């Protein structure tokens, strides 16, 4: 799933190529991906792109008011890529009719929406896999989408301070990995970067948030890890074409997705251990026992009760 760094790079990529351009076609191929009906998708046609922004993991393509003067309000094309969604850019976008997607199994990414611009370029929103969760909204204000309106603090914004993080951790007693992934608390962190952040903070993914109440140094360390891991990932992906972002993300991971490989150490010095995994029903997490859990191996939930 694309997380904050990849979405930030996609936003930068799209903003550079679409700002000021007029939409000449917006064709829906997957009606299941479209979550709104008013305004209709064809209301985008004729409007110029005012800019592209990010809200957590959401892409917001902002469209200026209509050219005929009858509509003095702009529109927003809001996209959540979820598990299998992606943005595919074309310098010369196809002009043929878009064939509706009927769902079901597909050998490759299925087209959900195609947007064509007045210079002949454009982008496709596609989705791979059988679990269709890509979400496309056309709204008059970003906050008209409840999932956007309820987003928490941006971890790279000025509002994310150690004090704010301490309040997030104190709000509900839960495992710290879950707190980092709660979009209503901190917007933009998912499964992969929460693993990376906790490794950088030398913290067990199953540490309970209540234990931070009397540990200001721990809060500071976690805050610093959030900032540094995400900022490093954003810098590494900035300027890359959309097609290269997934590979760049995988290359930058220290523990996530690297089960059985040597741990590079939290400070860049190999610790001598290997990356371990805990698997759940539909996902898994990776961590290093030496760096994060005092050498203890966490039990796999598929096999036994969790060790904390």
UniProtKB/TrEMBL annotation:
Gene3D superfamilies: 1.10.8.50, MutM-like, N-terminal. Residues 254-293 form the FPG-type domain. GO terms for molecular function: 8-oxo-7,8-dihydroguanine DNA N-glycosylase activity; damaged DNA binding; DNA-(apurinic or apyrimidinic site) endonuclease activity; lyase activity; zinc ion binding. It catalyses: Hydrolysis of DNA containing ring-opened 7-methylguanine residues, releasing 2,6-diamino-4-hydroxy-5-(N-methyl)formamidopyrimidine. It comes from the Bacteria. InterPro entries: FPG_cat, FPG_N, H2TH_FPG, Ribosomal_uS13-like_H2TH, Znf_DNA_glyclase/AP_lyase. GO terms for biological process: base-excision repair. Residues 2-108 form the Formamidopyrimidine-DNA glycosylase catalytic domain. Keywords: DNA damage, DNA repair, DNA-binding, Glycosidase, Hydrolase, Lyase, Metal-binding, Multifunctional enzyme, Zinc, Zinc-finger. Pfam families: Fapy_DNA_glyco, H2TH. Belongs to the FPG family. This is Formamidopyrimidine-DNA glycosylase. It comes from Sediminihabitans luteus.
